[in-house]
Amino acid sequence: MRATLPIPPSVNHYWLPTARHGKRLSPAALTFRRKVAHALHGIEPLRGPVFVEWWAYRPQKWGDVDNFNKALLDALTGFVYADDSQVEDLLCHNRVDTKRPRLELEWRSLEPQGALFTTVAPPAQVVYVGGIPVSVRSDRLRPAVIRPGGSTR
User: Fold this and answer.
1) What angle, rounded to 10 degrees, do the helices at 27-39 and 69-76 form?
2) Whether pLDDT at 25 is above 60
3) Of 12, 94, 101, 144, which is the most exposed, with the fewest CB atoms less than 10 Å away?
4) Do β-strands 102-109 and 2-5 pair in parallel, antiparallel, or remain unpaired?
């Protein structure tokens, strides 16, 4: 599934201190969460392990690509998945778009689906299903990532 969201606040601007040495969400974090809830309203949360990929198109090149992860993954809870602990694979991309800053999000379940995933093979073995390399890990199939030199994850 896909969605376009606003740029989340950096983790550096996500929390504010409270009087009792605690922390609370900043106004920017609350605004971001409201916008995410509006954009993803009505989406059924996935069950089981989840893959999340996002592209941040920021107005200028600033900050680290990983400064958005906490704000984004927390805001997706209840819409994309029930809990952000379900995210097993996360892929982030940092880009510049001065005219239209945004965050493009894509997610999918890592659970086996349908007859394509009926083959059981030993862990770390690569099998080909319909010409697509698929690796087996923890008794479930997922698309294989083939690294230089032919190794897989």
Assistant:
1) 50
2) yes
3) 12
4) antiparallel
Question: Is the model's pLDDT at 132 over the cut of 50?
Answer: yes
Element (H, E) at 121: none
Residues 59, 65, 67, 73, CA torsion sign: positive
Residue 34, classified by CB atoms within 10 Å of its CB into exposed (0-12), middle (13-18) or buried (19+), is: exposed
pLDDT for residue 117: 45
Strand partners, 127: 134
DSSP class of residue 116 equals G
Q: What are phi and psi of 119, to 5 degrees?
A: -75, 135
Which residues make Cβ contacts (< 8 Å) with residue 138, sequence separation at least 6? 123
The strand pairing partners of 118, in sequence order, are: none
User: Is 0.90 surpassed by the pTM of this model?
Assistant: no
CA–CA separation, 60 and 84 (whole Å): 28
